[in-house]
Each structure stands twice: as C-alpha cells, then as structure tokens.
Write a structure and sequence with these properties.
The complex is a heterodimer of chains A (about 280) and B (about 120). Chain A is α+β, with helices and mostly antiparallel strands and about 280 residues long. Chain A has helices spanning about 1-15, 20-30, 35-45, 50-65, 70-80, 85-100, 100-115, 120-135, 195-200, 205-215, 250-270, 275; strands at about 170-175, 180-185, 220-225, 230-235, 240-245. Chain A folds into 2 domains: about 1-135, Alpha Horseshoe (Serine Threonine Protein Phosphatase 5, Tetratricopeptide repeat), CATH 1.25.40; about 155-275, Beta-Lactamase, CATH 3.30.450. In chain A, strands 2-1-5-4-3 form a 5-stranded antiparallel beta sheet, with helices on both faces. Chain B has one domain: Beta-Lactamase. Classes of the chains: A alpha+beta (about 280), B alpha+beta (about 120). Strand 3 (about 220-225) of chain A pairs antiparallel with strand 3 of chain B.
C-alpha cells in the first residue's frame, strides 16, 4: 500500500490533471490520513469539478472525519451529476439512518437496492425493521449495530451490515470451533469458515485457563497481523469465539472497534435465541 | 547459543512495563532462553504463547492470509506479545497493561532480525 501511495503521488506530481488522485485520496483515507486525503481530493475536484466519483470520495472522507453535513452536501452533488448513483444513495441512506430519519433512509436505500448489491438489500431490511419497531421511540437508535438482527435472517449474514470496507469479514464460532454465524471469506472470495473454525477450535478455553493461571485475569482479545491482513478475536458467550479480519491497511484501533460492534451484534443474536433456531450448513 | 541470545532478551525486558522475554520453539512450546523478572512462570507463558501463535498461524494459512508476523493477547492485568519470522522460533514478551505495545512491537521485530 505504501508503494502504491508513493507511485500514485509521483504520477500525480508528473500529471496534475490525472484522475489518479481518486486512488491516492482513497488509499490515504483507508490509512486514516484524513487531512491529507481531503486535501488531495479537493485539489482533484478543482480540476474535475463534475467528477461524481470525486464528490463521492470527498463525502466518504467527510464521514470518516465525522463531518456529516459536508458528506450530505457532497452526496447530493453526486446525485445532481449522476441521478441514481448507488454510492451516493447508500451514503445518504446511512446518514439519514444515523440521524434517526428512518423514512428518508428507506427511500434512499430503496433507490440504491435497484443496483442489486447484497449489502444494500440487507441494510434496507434493517432500516425497514427499524421503521416498524422504533418509529414511536423518541430517540431512534443512532448506531445500526444495536438493531436487533432479523430473526429469519441467514446466520451467515449476521455481521453483513457492519462490514463496510472491502476485505472485512467476521465469524462467530462455538466452543468446539463450529460455525454459529457470519462467514470467513478469503481474498479470493471463498468461504473458508469451517477451516478457520477448525484451526481455532479450543483456543478460547485454553487461553482462559492459561491467563488465569498466569495471574493476568480473563482475556479480552487476541490480535494478530499477517502479511495480508489483520485479525482480531474475542471470547464470546459459552466459550465461543468471535473472529474479525480486515485488510492490512486497517488501523488496529479501527479493527478493535469493529470487533466490539460485531461482539455486540453476536451477543444480541445469541440472546435472542436465533442461533438455536437456525444452523449454518 | 544462549550466550548470544541473552542480550537480546535483556534488552526487551528492560523496556518499561515488560515483565518477561522469552525465545520459544513454536512447534513444541519449549523455552530456548528467557529473561524473567521474579515470579514469572516462563514455561507456562511459553506453552501458551506457542500454542496461540500456532493456532493463529494455521488459521491464517487456512484463510490464505500469509505468515503471522505479530500477535498480541490482551488480558485484564497483562498482555502477551509474540513475534515470529517463520523459522519455528518466536520471541515472546509478557507486559503490563499500561506498557507501550507499539514500542514492544518494534523491539520484537529488531530482536527477530538479530536471532534470524
């Protein structure tokens, strides 16, 4: 990734009018260099003011910076340039949901769902669920992680709405390493949940016993880095294990946050008894 | 062998908040050498670190993620960091919760180069 950033920076320096600023700014965004990412995107927009992808990127940078009004403004600009732009509709749906405007969220996501993207369909179901269950609550839920998962949902899609970036995957295992929910998808898109589960079988109990013996108390998480990814694990209920993986460029702090959100989702799902009703093939 | 490894471990154990450093065989969890502060159970740490690292490595292999370079186990009152270079030897540190993991990680990678 660092090599790519260097290469794209050099290319942009050689050709300031190049569209490579889109790749460069997005890479910087993923590395959490948000000020720099915004600077690159804004400079690109000066040269390409009618480029919808540039406005879309600037909106995503704004979301990462917590600047939701700016994100809304940019996504509206995208829709003026390209009506029906799926990314902008998804983004506006997300923002509306964050602000408790469930009807608006549903409207935007309905538009985005026409792209047949599975993540949009899933988000839309969650929003529709919320509009039925939470419409009368004075303060609607801010974070979709706290929405109760749909009881009839495929357990393999348990974490789908929480996994927003490419390369993110999450898997819930029982104490024997058997898959309860989620999926572990490798870089080629193959589901390797069972293999990963088998390899991690028993780790939760073993670590629990050892850390107690060593006098360091209960274990909270295990994080490991590989050449291609970062992986975090946390103990789940009944000796189970939650595994979350993301691309190598994901900062560990963000990975931990994703792990916490998935843990909250898993916990709610297990408490709801959905795991007893449905089994992953 | 131990004579040349000892300074590497002592450098690690001198880091703030580090209670123990060990070089461990990943395949059998046996201690190759260690620098322990009083009260640390080196053999138990070695067995746990090797086992967790091995499971991580095998799961990463199953998911085609490449070799595991660094692993960190966080518990309520301590953390264990492990770095490996894929040659059966792993370096392990046991540290306080407040220890600077970024620094420990860097020192572990430096130490790996020295023992490679």
């Amino acid at each position: 990734m660092a090599d790519d950033v260097r290469r794209w920076s050099e290319e942009l320096a050689r050709e300031p009018g190049s569209l490579v600023f889109l790749q460069l700014a997005d890479a910087l965004r993923r590395q959490q260099q948000l000020d720099l990412a915004q600077k690159v995107a804004l400079r690109g927009l000066e040269r390409h003011p009618h480029n919808a992808d540039a406005h879309d990127l600037l909106a995503r940078i704004a979301v990462d910076r917590g600047d939701f009004p700016r994100a809304r403004e940019e996504w509206n600009a995208v829709l003026r340039l390209v009506p029906g732009h799926a990314g902008a509709l998804k983004g506006l749906g997300y923002l509306s949901f964050q602000q408790g405007r469930v009807d608006d969220a549903e409207r935007y996501l309905t538009g985005a769902a026409e792209t047949d993207e599975p993540s949009v369909a899933s988000a839309l179901r969650a929003v529709r669920h919320a509009s039925g269950s939470y419409a009368t609550i004075a303060n609607p839920p801010i974070d979709p992680v706290y929405l109760p998962p749909e009881p009839s949902n495929d357990p393999r899609r348990l974490f789908e709405t929480l996994l927003v970036d490419e390369g993110q995957t999450a898997l819930l295992l029982d104490a024997n390493g058997l898959v309860l929910g989620g999926m572990y998808v490798d870089a080629q898109g193959a589901d390797v949940s069972q293999e990963v589960g088998a390899r991690l079988s028993g780790i939760s109990d073993e670590v629990r016993r050892s850390t107690k013996y060593l006098g360091v108390g209960d274990w909270r998480s295990i994080t490991f880095e590989t050449r291609g990814a970062v992986v975090a694990m946390a103990p789940s209920e009944d000796g189970g294990l939650l595994v979350v993986a993301a691309s190598k460029v994901t900062p560990l702090g963000l990975l931990r946050r994703l792990l916490d959100r998935c843990a909250a989702r898993a916990s709610a799902w297990l408490r709801s008894g959905a795991s007893d009703r449905e089994a992953t093939p | 062998m131990s004579a040349s490894l000892r300074p590497v471990l002592e450098t690690l154990t001198r880091q703030r908040g580090v209670r123990a450093s060990l070089i461990v065989s990943e395949s059998d969890g046996l201690v190759i050498d260690s620098s322990l502060r009083f009260g640390q159970d080196g053999e138990r740490v070695a067995a746990l670190a090797a086992s967790v690292y091995r499971k991580a490595r095998l799961s990463a292999k199953a998911a085609r993620l490449g070799a595991v370079t660094f692993l960190q186990l966080d518990a309520e009152r301590g953390r264990i960091c492990v770095a490996g270079a894929g040659n059966d030897l792993v370096i392990v540190t046991v540290a306080d919760v407040a220890a600077n993991v970024g620094l420990i990680r860097m020192e572990l990678f430096k130490a790996l180069e020295l023992i490679a």
